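Human: For the file, kindly provide a plain-text protein record giving the amino acid sequence and the backbone structure tokens, at your earliest convenience.
Assistant:
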Amino acid sequence: MAQQATIYKVELSVSDMDRHYYETHKLTVAKHPSETNERLMVRLVAFALNAHEHLEMTKGLSTDDEPDIWQKSLSGELDVWVALGLPSEKVMRQSCGKAGKVVVYPYGGRTAEMWWDKIKNSTTRFNNLHVVNFPEADTAALAKLASRAMKIQINIQDGDVMVSADDGIVYVTPVKWKGAA
């Protein structure tokens, strides 16, 4: 029998001083059986970094042709495509053709660095592609904050991210590998 997704209830308060975005999102997040707490928390940070009133979590891991997070225009066109992990060059090419802005958040330390070294030259033609790495120590610390019912405050200032949940605080320093400064 297949395992069911685990449901997480998240109250995510975003204070993004860089984009002047201040909002609280009540999210119901399905954690796929193969998804780790680290990936779940990276997904929430990625959501906060791209937060918008029309931004939505998708089916993620359970669907091949959807990103982890997307933002659609009122007419149904894909404005923002957010993917986590280490997508293939083919997936990134297809994503860049479907959406106005594509953001990939690799994580995993040396594995992510090797992926980027291999793929970066084939991405130069994609002007709408942004690649932002999360350091391994930061994502490992984020994983420890995960719980089934979370109230998370994410503050973003000068590109740095502070994530606080319950009595824990994690500082995440995203590293831009490709995209606008």
